[in-house]
Amino acid sequence: MCRRTAGSASLLAVIATATLFACAVRAQDKPANVRDPNWWSLQPVRRPAVPTVSDHAWARNPIDRFILAKLRATGVQPAAEADRRTLVRRVTFDLTGLPPTPEELEAALRDPSDHWYEKVVDRLLASPAYGERWARHWLDIVRFAESHGYETNNLRPNAWPYRDYVVRAFNQDTPYPQFIVEQLAGDSLPNADWLTQAATGLLVGGAHDVVGNQTVEGQLQQRMDDLDDIVTTVGATFLGLTTNCARCHDHKFDPISTRDYYSLQAVFAGVQHNERSIPAPDAERRRRQSERIAEQLAQLDRRLDELEPEARSDSAGGPRRAPVQIRRNVDRFAPVDARFVRFTVLATNNKIEPCIDELEIWTAGSSPRNVALANTGAKATASSVYPNSTIHRLEHLNDGQYGNGRSWISSEPGKGWVQIEFPAVERIDRVVWGRDREEKFQDRLAVDYRVEIAVAAGQWRVVASSEDRQPFGTKMVVGTTAGERASVLTKREELQKKLTSLNPAIPIYSGTFTQPETTHVLLRGDPMRKGDAAPPSGLAAVRPALRLDPKAPERERRLALARWLGNPNNPLPARVMVNRLWQHHFGQGIVATPSDLGFNGDRPSHPELLDWLASELMANGWRLKPLHRLMVLSTTYRQSGRVSDKALSVDKQNRLLWRMSPRRLEAEAVRDAMLAVSGTLDRRMAGPGYNLWEKNTNYVVVFTPKTDLGREEFRRMIYQFKPRTQQDPTFGVFDCPDAALARPQRASSTTALQALNLFNGRFALQQVEFLAERLKRESGDDPTKQVGRAFLLLLGREPTAIELAAAVATVRERGIAACCRAMYNANEFLCVD
Predict the structure, then answer these.
(1) Residue 448: CA atoms inside 13 Å, Cβ hemisphere, count?
(2) How confident is the model at residue 274 (pLDDT cuts 50, 70, 90)?
(3) Regarding predicted confidence, which is higher, 491 or 1?
(4) Is 63 helix (H, G, I), strand (E, B) or coil?
(5) Would you say the C-alpha torsion 615, 619, 622, 624 has a positive or negative sign?
(6) Distance (Å, whole) CA 241 – CA 596
(7) Contacts of 649 (CB under 8 A, 6+ apart)
(8) Angle of CA points 204, 210, 216, to nearest 5°
(9) In a 3-state reduction of DSSP, which class is residue 8?
(10) Are 382 and 419 in contact (CB under 8 A)?
(11) Cis peptide bond N-terminal to 527, omega within 30
(12) Cα–Cα distance between 384 and 361 in angstroms, integer?
């Protein structure tokens, strides 16, 4: 692997430079109102009057009146309404990403009510599948992935809670301003539950270079790239502006200055890529169960201590005790009075400074106590302490906490001693110690040592040592209690695994936050050339103004910006969001560049409709489901895909929406639909995603696809573990974003690999067999019934006479699996009309 050299630019910096160069070239052809603060998208949202139209029967709601007014002005006639089957299949995929079942289709066809379609829409909006479908759209926008990217592409196994947060937010119809606040500052909200705290995963969802750089310039450049990713994502996602174009100079097209860019960066200057621990959703249950298991473990440990042979202070008779181990060692001796206990290390397993994570000294008798604990008055001293360390400190020797992060280390290679003094004489019979009870570190283990006791200072007597232990690394001594000891150890290991899984705090990859230093404008974007200070604020051209105290606490900065983005007087967020909804329902946004409403983006095809929808969103409490309902209930949405030569000559791109353009399903919908119709779809929601890749521990992660997929991999594709720059072996060719950058809209290509993967891919062939089994199970051995059921499942309709005859002939000649294989590849299965 070739590591990045100190002086080379990062990938993001190269992309940014190329983008800026292209922008500068295009700027020569733009009219004089570039960087105009009076640009349409920067003006306040005002609710326009709904147009008056003569065709009241066609116009079911205000959306239709806006659309029809433009169609009439151009002389274009709208298409007729789609039939029920087409409409139910279309809206079911749009709102849930899944096909309707034959039973759902039949219910809609048989419903005599005038409001049959409204019932279908309301059912779909209430379905948990709605949140899964629309969360996928959102994750594209915010470049969500579960690996770091760059050379090593290390995994982020705890990034998934952000995905679950988004699914829940859509299903709960969280008001959009709250949705913004939770993603930018969920950690600062009172009583925020664990998923709300995970919402800040948006900020650190982008690529992050974990390799590091040895030069100061390189380190600063990497930090600037991380912050640029956050500023870019927030600006494009919520404001629909390319704020990152002002990183090196004032924006070429929009009224965004370099100072604006760095003031926005100052809001996020305390955000760091990292995991943080938050209370588990069932923390109280975990705590209670952990206490019960901890008591069971203590009982097992006491039994193990009883089975431990008494230590000798010399090697007479040869070794009879087990070798020392990393986790826990017991030195048991006849009960003795002591006020001082000293543990002296004479050698370690790797000849460097010894480490002890906890030294325990237990009293004799039926109710033993650990009298070494500092909170009982015991005092610790040592020969030396590892210098300048926050985790290896003397007070960690007897604080009752285990692990390398709470340990003592000597400053002397291979040796050192620690001593415990009790407030009064105690009768003790064993010393328990470990290098790392969590077993994460294998070094610094004392392999040659002695334990001494004294009643009065200086009167030392050896009570145990390593002299009678087997050499480190050899197998345990087999004695008369070996069988019972092995049984106790097995039980202990099982309980320890349960205890580990019950940690009341769980790690999530959602960032850590520190109070930042002053942010400066960087001249030409060079991190080594600081200009004037840039206090945290919003964009000057976007009203209302947002200005913060330069010394504002870190959390207040993010919270203030989030509330500014959700302010109804801010003209951009509502417009941006309703345009995104429109895009996914109608195939393209009213503004065809959904993350760029600036001068270099598209102009709205229906500006009045866009503002009416934005005002309607705010009037409905910023909830999205009423907007979905309004859009899919409109006659505009209910149109068929009929093509009119006249309309085509006037509006080839269907910007006026004179019909519903057919669309190919996205990769996720294709995979989920294949699972759904084969009967293998696992509808479990939430939690860590399933993985299509073989595990590996390489420094640079290698993604080798699993050879066999089972039921665990048959959940919806949104729950698939998503590494950056690595695609699903079958469905990656269906224009999945690789999450290297945000993807506010997907391409829809047609390639040979798509057909080959669906026809010959391991997953596709596996699902063909499952579908064939389902058809045999539900339709018996009659080919006609099998084909009829297959058409209902896959295409939502009965076969025509010609189709039926051809399909039945195929089944009789080649079997039902061959017919299933062909239908999975049918254009009608892969597209919605």
Answers:
(1) 11
(2) very high
(3) 491
(4) helix
(5) negative
(6) 5
(7) none
(8) 105
(9) coil
(10) yes
(11) no
(12) 21
| Main-chain phi, psi angles of 462, to 5 degrees | -75, 125
Packing angle between helix 84-96 and helix 625-633, nearest 10 degrees?
160
User: What are 19-40's pLDDT values in tens digits?
Assistant: 443 444 343 444 557 899 999 9
Coil vs helix vs strand at 31: coil
Closest CA relative to residue 724, chosen from 149, 288, 241, 262: 149
Distance between CA 238 and CA 542 in Å, rounded? 12
- Which region, left, alpha or beta, applies to residue 218 given φ > 0 means left and ψ of -120 to 50 means alpha? alpha
SS percent in the chain: helix, strand, coil, step 5: 45, 15, 45
Buried/exposed 466-490: b ≥16 CB within 10 Å, e otherwise:
bbbbbebeeeebeeeeeeebeebee
Q: Please, which residues have CB within 8 angstroms of residue 646's CB and are 6 or more apart in sequence?
A: 75, 76, 77
* Intra-chain end-to-end CA distance of the chain, in Å: 48
Residue type, 481: T
Q: Per residue in 626-664, pLDDT tens?
A: 999 999 999 999 999 999 999 999 999 999 999 999 999
- Residue type at position 21: F
Distance CA 510, CA 158 (A): 9
**Whole-number Å distance between alpha carbons of 801 and 759:** 25
What CA–CA distance (Å, rounded) separates 203 from 201? Answer: 5
Percent of the chain whose pLDDT exceeds 70: 95
pLDDT tens, residue by residue, 537-584: 999 999 999 999 999 999 999 999 999 999 999 999 999 999 999 999
CA distance 613 to 621: 13
Q: What is the 3-state secondary structure (H, E, C) of 375-387?
A: HHCCEEEECCCCC
Strands 379-382 and 416-434: antiparallel
- Phi/psi class of residue 271: alpha, beta or left (left: φ > 0; alpha: ψ in -120 to 50)? beta
Nearest to 631 by CA among 577, 585, 670: 585
Helix 554-565 and helix 176-185, axial crossing angle in degrees, nearest 10: 160
* 766-816 tens-digit pLDDT: 999 999 999 999 999 999 999 999 999 999 999 999 999 999 999 999 999
Which whole-number Å values give the CA distances from 662 to 86, 448, 640, 831, in the listed order? 11, 77, 9, 7
CB within 8 Å of 112: residues ≥ 6 apart: none
Q: Which long-range contacts (CB under 8 A, 24 or more apart) does 770-776 make?
A: 770/678, 770/679, 770/680, 771/677, 771/678, 771/679, 771/817, 771/820, 771/824, 772/815, 772/816, 772/817, 772/820, 774/678, 774/679, 775/816, 775/820, 776/816
Strand partners, 620: none
The string of DSSP letters for 364-414 reads -SSS--BTT-GGGT-EEEES---TT-SSB-GGGTTSS--SGGGBEE-SBTT
Phi, psi of 360 (to 5 degrees): -110, 140
Q: Measured at the alpha carbon of residue 463, what is the angle toward residues 459 and 465, in degrees to the nearest 5?
A: 120
- Which residue's structure tokens are 């109280």? 284
Residue carrying the six token digits 């302010």: 567
Query: Who contacts 679 (Cβ-Cβ below 8 Å, separation ≥6)?
Result: 770, 771, 774
802, with CB counted inside 10 A (0-12, 13-18, 19+), is: exposed
Task: Check whether 4 has a pLDDT greater than 80.
Answer: no
Residue 664 pLDDT: 96
Facing residues of 379 across strands? 421
Of 116, 167, 113, nearest in space to 139 by CA: 167
pTM above threshold 0.70: yes
